[in-house]
Amino acid sequence: MAxxxxxxxxxxxxxGYYPTDEVTLSRILDALECEGxxxxxxxxxxxxxxxxxxxxxHLAQVFGAEVTSLGVEFDPERAWAAKRLLSRxxxxxxxxxxxxxxxxxxxxxxxxxxxGVSDQAGRAGQGEHDKAERLERQFLHLCTPMLAYGxxxxxIVPHYAVDADMAAYIGRHFRDVxxxxxxEQQFKQCVIFGVHGRPRNPPKELLQxxxxxxxxxxxxxSVHELPEVWSGMHYSVPDLPADPEHRFHAVRLDARQLxxxxxxxxxxxxxxxxxxxxxxxDRSARxxxxxxxxxxxxxxxxxxxxxxxxVSPAGRTLLIKGDTFKKKHREQVTEVDEDGKASSxxxxxxxxxxxxxxxxxxxxxxxxxxxxxx
Length: 374
What we know:
Layout: H1 6-9, H2 22-30, E1 32-34, E2 38-43, H3 50-63, E3 66-73, H4 76-82, E4 88-91, E5 97-99, E6 104-109, H5 135-143, E7 147-158, H6 164-173, E8 174-181, E9 189-196, H7 204-215, E10 224-225, E11 235-237, E12 248-250, H8 255-264, H9 274-278, H10 294-302, E13 307-311, E14 317-336, E15 342-360, E16 370-373
Parallel strand pairs: 1-11, 2-3, 2-6, 3-4, 6-7, 8-10
Antiparallel strand pairs: 5-12, 7-9, 8-9, 13-14, 14-15, 15-16
Helix pairs in contact: 6-7
């Protein structure tokens, strides 16, 4: 599945968006398999969602897995295109999205390329070491904790971005790491596979290979072009059962996404059953057959049934509302025994007090006064 047409691909190179080409993607899919019946996969920079949708389709059709694809995209146009392809997609900055740690089995990471905005930007005398951290490394550090132990990472970055710090991080947190040059070199990309594991000392051989990758000396090392037919060990996406407590949501939603979420979850809200729950409010209360006792009056007050407009014979008009509140009755008893020792017992008893409050609507100086009827 191609991510974009070639004639419009150049329009997406701005804002750090470098789409995965179809040839590279098809070779990546050949290296993946699924070991269980369910899988949860994540692309935190999913663009239009076609790359992750291809991974989902591959795992579902070839291995029969039930796949949940999760995407995050900052650009609104691309995000809403991805919403039509993926199980769930959030239009937001990935820094504003909450994702449960170690909750996904595959991390498809093709982050924005280049440097972030430095606090020192624009200052005179800014040197090489004053630049902000590369975006590729920021996204790698941010997203690795979301990947379950045993989960698979597919990391697509320019080969020159794999500096010593990034190589050490990959070697420390991933095992079975293999690096390849992408067959399409328009963006000078490489593809790094790895299996997330507990931190360890990075192997020296891996650091050497990644150093050769960065310097463009892969032809003389163990780094080669991503093969057209995968012949090595497949990277197996682990089985992750459905988790009702799994978190995947934005810290804040714009109006368009809020409307979409309310529509999607409409059947779980109060509104479909609103008439059933609140139809009693439209019915007029019947008058009692006889004068109520104080006990019956207290029950009516507690139920909020004493309400409405009353007019006295003298013409005074009140809008009344009945209620009941709880009051504690305090009683303290002091006793002195034969030895002259005093002991005190404090008893607190709950009592329910009915009360009627009203707003005076009688024209005149008392209009709008709030009164209490006891």
